[in-house]
Amino acid sequence: MITIIVGSNRKGNLTSLIGELYLEKLKEKYQGEVKLLNIESMPSDVLNTEMYEEDHTWIENVKKEYIIPAEKFVFIIPEYNGTFPGSLKLFIDSLSSKDADKSFFDKKAALVGLSAGKFGNWLGLEHFGVVLNYLKVNVIHQKVSISNIWSYINDDKKYDDPKTVVYIEKQIESFINF
């Protein structure tokens, strides 16, 4: 199973559009199960002083449905202040405080960054890759950085840059074989 994780908790985020695009493309090419998890649905009370001793009910359910059964992850990560969102770090910390071996060890990940600016969150992808490496996740070398995202959202609220879509498809093909 491949789980796509949309790494923004901001309501109505553009990261979700890219997550939907990856879901569509993976379902076309991958023979196994593909699921999409949007951390926009993460409850605000996941962050609490007991989070390292006892899993929040939402985290328990996410682990069982999306994380532990997954062999691979695609992380769609927006640029927040030059790196990745703190909500994504909180999400990863919540998942790895217990059962990190079942959740992450020896699994594989692909990274996709996006930004309103011109660098497509390349620095955030590098930062997040370090976190995944610490959790013993193997990250594919081929990353996708989507810059100037607002320029490529069409009237139907879909991402519309044919050149980048070709690169996304190449990343997906490599990732399936990774």
| CATH T-level fold name | Rossmann fold
Overall radius of gyration:
15 Å
Structural class: alpha/beta
Which homologous superfamily in CATH is the superfamily? Flavodoxin domain
What's the total count of β strands?
Answer: 6
Please report the first level of CATH classification, the CATH class.
Alpha Beta
The number of distinct helices, counting runs of at least 4 residues, comes to: 6
Key descriptive features of the protein:
globular; 6-stranded parallel sheet; 178 residues; 6 strands; Rossmann fold; alpha/beta
Task: Describe the 3D structure.
- This protein is globular.
- The chain has one domain: 3-Layer(aba) Sandwich (Rossmann fold).
- Strands 1, 2, 3, 4, 5 and 6 form a 6-stranded parallel beta sheet that branches.
- The mean pLDDT is 94.
- It is an alpha/beta fold and 178 residues long.
- Helix content is 39%, strand content 16%.
Write a short abstract of this structure.
The protein is an alpha/beta fold and about 180 residues long. The chain has a single domain, classed as Rossmann fold (3-Layer(aba) Sandwich). The chain contains 6 helices and 6 strands; from the N terminus they run βαβαβααβαββα.
Topology readout:
Elements: E1 2-6, H1 15-29, E2 34-38, H2 57-67, E3 72-78, H3 86-96, H4 100-103, E4 108-114, H5 122-134, E5 138-139, E6 144-146, H6 162-177
Parallel strand pairs: 1-2, 1-3, 3-4, 4-5, 4-6
Helix pairs in contact: 1-6
